[in-house]
Amino acid sequence: xxCWNFHCKRGKVCHVxxxxxxxxxxxxxxxxxxxxxxxxxxxxxxxxxxxxxxxxGTKCQLEGTKIGxxxxxxxMGSCKYIPPCTDYEVDQFPLRMRDWLKNIxxxxxxxxxxxxxxxxxxxxxxxxxxxQNEKRLVAGDHTVExxxxxxxxxxxxYVYPVHWQFHQLDQHPVDRLLIHSELAPLRASLVPMxxxxxxxxxxxxxxxxxxxALKEWCHCFGIKE
Length: 225
Known about the structure:
By secondary structure, the chain is mainly alpha-helical.
């Protein structure tokens, strides 16, 4: 099969032409496999798609148009009303996000104690220092005041989680810059719960070049140079 191991980007599928050569064509949204209810997604056009296959197939068919360029995956689940993010909320957002990232790493470390594989050996050694620190603020529904106090008092515990998340996202390509598609996996899963995440990432891009550099990312989270 000429299409075996032939890679096409999202929204496209491999097709063998009359000469037997493989090339990529747009996925027909109507031909996407049937999806479960929980697999639907919301596009930036505020339309609910049955699956990411349908969304990216639609985007591909609109390639070269303004609508196609602007269409992206907004968040997981069907479209719903997302309240606007206030200035106060966006200012408090890094506090919750830093705490969340730290706790995600703690969960990964605990899982690795039984079956290793989530974190690398180097990551485990860094996370172990945070995990074993008696002053660590354990997971919970903490007030903004407590989160701020803990960040100021135990600043060193929050640096690595912020760096770690950046490098988890910086994959295609690994260039110390985050583009929209690299941010999408994190954004898409959090928008329904953290409605400020879109505005937060927009404001992270200080020079408005549609790229978030490591320096900009750290600045957004209050990490010193």
